[in-house]
Design a protein that fits this description.
Layout (H helix, E strand, L loop, with lengths): L4 E2 L3 E5 L5 E5 L8 E4 L3 E4 H5 L3 H5 L2 E4 L2 E4 L11 E2 L5 E4 L3 E4 L10 E2 L12 E2 L10 E2 L7 H6 L6 H15 L4
Parallel strand pairs: 8-11
Antiparallel strand pairs: 1-4, 2-3, 4-10, 5-7, 6-7, 9-10, 12-13
The chain binds zinc ion (ZN).
Length: 173
């Protein structure tokens, strides 16, 4: 049995960048759960001892806590980052469509929605007009993204954003 779940209306196939992506094989309405991540929980020390390819497919769920994917990636592990994604988070492990997705579109989320750690920084070539070029563990703090993804951050980062706003910024506009 797989640890993660992927909607039947999606398949893994080669994506634009080297590697694989997850593509809709049917129209998927807004608000649909398309993936649910499972794995093993690791603290920071355990996580940092893992090989890099396991770290980049893992998911941060709290400060110093990581949901680690299996050694052999599963279909849901091939969900890619986009700077203009069509999916976001509900809770810490559910990926949900933010808008209607047409058959053939790649399902993506923005790693800024869940990562606050530098373990998966990379040069982005997602091809969207608003591509940030470099994706970092601090992107969740960008005011523009906090506004755009309001309600779509993982609950972990949602709480951190609330704290950030309380401490420094006053209410978001
Ligand atoms: Zn990008």
């Amino acid at each position: 049995m797989l640890l993660s779940w992927l909607i039947d209306d999606a398949e893994v196939r080669p994506a634009g960048a080297p590697g694989l992506g997850v593509f809709a094989t049917a129209d998927i309405p807004a608000g649909s759960v398309v993936a649910a991540f499972g794995g093993h929980m690791a603290d920071r020390a355990t996580f940092e001892a893992l090989p890099g390819h396991r770290q980049v497919h893992s998911l941060q769920v709290a400060d110093g806590h990581f949901l680690v994917c299996p050694a052999e990636p599963e279909p849901a592990d091939h969900l890619n980052h986009s700077c203009e994604p069509n999916c976001g988070f509900q809770g810490n492990v559910l990926i949900v469509t933010m808008r209607d997705v047409a058959r053939g579109e790649e399902l993506t989320f923005d790693y800024a929605m869940c990562d606050s750690d530098p373990y998966d920084e990379f040069e982005c070539a997602c091809g969207s007009s608003g591509c940030r070029r470099k994706v970092t563990g601090n992107d969740w703090m960008l005011p523009e993204l906090r506004g755009r993804y309001r309600g779509w951050f993982s609950s972990y980062l949602g709480h951190r954003i609330d704290e950030l706003v309380d401490d420094t910024d006053g209410p978001l506009g």
